[in-house]
């Protein structure tokens, strides 16, 4: 059974700091890995998608990396802002047409 | 352009009643997914539609749950004889295809509360 884990469940950092969110998966035969953001009471917003052949993707202040051999992905957020406060979810796609989600990391940026 | 929309945004019902949740995917997207997000838990896959193929129902938790997709567009998730454990946020997503480059775009969800 494919499993995706995110630790810690919650994280608080002062504004302006760089931070890293972690995601691990048990099956290295992934097709891609996605990072999403979820604001309270809202749906999910896709942030970055890394295909299995890629090592990283960047969008603005966000950088996501993928290491299939170790079963890990990280989401790096540079120069954090209060607006970055949200729950961040990673999800793996194993080619069976459905995403397997982690339970998320709730991020709070302290002004 | 228009994203994935879902209705209603909130639904409160009594135990034992049937409910219908609606999803309008992004125009042109052939794949449509339903997920459930229960309090304190991750997103749980429910069902998946791809074009005219038979849906993948492997995630439906019981036979009280069913879904259909009419005309390859709008989808309805029906829960019969609702139970309190059905209370959750039901999220719909669509994607252009099912390849490794195809991002799933999510709607805002329907929050279902069963009293």
Overview of this structure, please?
The complex is a heterodimer of chains A (111) and B (115). Chain A is mainly β and 111 residues long. Chain A has no helices and 11 strands. Chain A has strands at 4-5, 10-14, 19-25, 32-38, 44-51, 56-59, 62-67, 72-77, 86-93, 99-101, 105-110. In chain A, the strands form 2 sheets. In chain A, strands 2, 4, 5, 9, 10 and 11 form a 6-stranded mixed beta sheet that branches. In chain A, strands 1-3-8-7-6 form a 5-stranded antiparallel beta sheet, with no helix packed on it. In chain A, a hairpin with a 4-residue loop joins strand 7 and strand 8. Chain A is globular and about 40 Å long. The model of chain A has no long low-confidence stretch (mean pLDDT 92). By secondary structure, chain B is mainly β. Chain B contains no helices and 10 strands. In chain B, the strands form 2 sheets. In chain B, strands 2, 4, 5, 8, 9 and 10 form a 6-stranded mixed beta sheet that branches. The radius of gyration of chain B is 13 Å and the shape is globular. The chains are: A mainly beta (111), B mainly beta (115).
What is the multimeric organization of the chains shown?
heterodimer
Largest sheet of chain A: 6 strands, mixed
State the separation between the terminal residues of chain A, measured CA to CA. 41 Å
Query: So what's the overall shape of chain B?
Result: globular
Q: What class, by secondary structure content of chain B? A: mainly beta
Helix and strand string of chain A, N-terminal first?
EEEEEEEEEEE
Number of strands of chain A: 11
Secondary structure class of chain A reads mainly beta
- What is the overall pLDDT average of chain A? 92
Low-confidence stretches of chain A: none
Question: What is the strand content of chain B?
Answer: over 45%
Instruction: List unreliable stretches of 5+ residues of chain B.
Output: none
Query: Approximately how much beta-strand content do the residues of chain A carry?
Result: over 45%
Radius of gyration of chain B: 13 Å
Number of helices of chain B: 0
List the total number of helices of chain A.
0
